[in-house]
Amino acid sequence: MLRNGLKYLLFGAAVPHVLSSVLQPTPPMGFNNWAALMCGLNESVFVETAHAMVNNGLLAAGYNRINLDDCWSTMNRAANGSMQWDTEKFPHGLPWLTTYLKKLGFEPGIYTDAGNLSCGGYPGAYGYEELDAQTFASWGFTYLKLDGCNMPTGTEAEYKAVYGKWHYLVQNVSSHAANLTDWYDVMSWVPKFGQLARHSRDSLVFNSTLYWPDITGWDSVMFNYGQEVRLARFQKPGYFNDPDFLNVDHFDYSLEEKKSHFAIWASLSAPLIISAWIPEFAAEEIEYLTNKDIIAVDQDPLALQATLASQDGTFDVLTKNLANGDRLLTVINRGYKTASYSVSFSRIGIDSLPGVKVKDLWTGGTNYARKQVTATNISSHGTAVLRLSPLGGGECEVIPTGMIFNTFSLTTLTTTHGRVSWSNSTGADGQVWQTREDGTIRSIVDKKLCLTELSGGKIVLENCVEKDSQKWDYYYSGNLQSRSSYNCLTEATNEAVITADCMYEDNTQVFGLPSGVEICEG
Q: Where are the alpha helices (DSSP H) in 173-240?
């Protein structure tokens, strides 16, 4: 069933204005009630939340969407087939609420389900798509979360047909922006139909342990983050991978974990949708959620998702380019004690630079670095977010650099003593690779050696000599294809690195590469 993989799709933009070429050029920011209140939504929740967001600076910081989730309707449609809001929950009506929210400066959003029933058992939109699109537009909603429960058959073909229909409707009935709710098979079409898609579990809600025993808040963040790092190749302006809500006030987070949650999502250029009781936020929560420098990373026009430069079990290092030519360095401390961590320029992909200015995006403080950048005193479960700029101005000269890993097995392309294999991530230099414009792939251990395909599909490192057997093309499918044989890099048994006939979405041939590498269609 597709529902087990892709969670939902979101459509969003202004209604009823003419569409621009990209409906949602940067990830949305705002509020959704689900993780905090689930079906306990009503008119006062959204009115009080909106006023709190105006007063505490969240709206001014960019959190301008307020979205209703499931359970807003009656249990049955009206006699004419149209959806009806629950008048006990929304006594003034939803048109009144959208008008009220817009006057305060917000864009209102609503929830529906592509199937016969919503996940909560309320009427779904299956068979009523055009009527519901017209209804939501007439009520003043500008954003639609389209969930994926209770489809008649649950096949991929059915999902594709239904989501495709919604995509047509929101472009021709109203200019909604949309969030689509297996994995790689569907990702060939999901970005064409929606602006966001979620592939992970729900962020923890307050009864999470009823269906997800022994889970902690940090586990939840790390699980969803771990799903998203496999999907960076799909993200671009107008389409965003969605690791789910910022459940800021969940009881099972430390302050450092809350800040990491926000910082990691921003590094991924993920949607920043808060699902928590905002009127009671503490000053320290407002302070980090309105951090302008980190929000700017999230909203960067390139919309790149930061990717893994290295991972050693304690520290995850992620990097990406920013639109003004700066380089982002994010370091996550998964460990249980405060520690510092240094990252070489080579791992960051900027080894041609003599030095950089380093801005700590938490404190605003700056310093200068040569040859390596050190993130100092990162708390347990804390995250350092550093913005690197070339000395003297201009843009960083960057070679996309980082891990090449199997998105199924999570083993990493590794060179040890000249041998190439697949192995678990250790954070060693032999697991960090440059992906150059000429198509070559080089270990930072020795940049004169290129990943080379020999006859019979064996893979070795040899001196770079500008031949097709040393050049590779990366595809949205996750395949890494040799320009010589047109076969694809493959994880074989016993850690062997080979090429073999290219297969579509096969677990042995789908790889994550560093952010910024050129990605081919097809």
A: 184-187, 190-193, 217-228
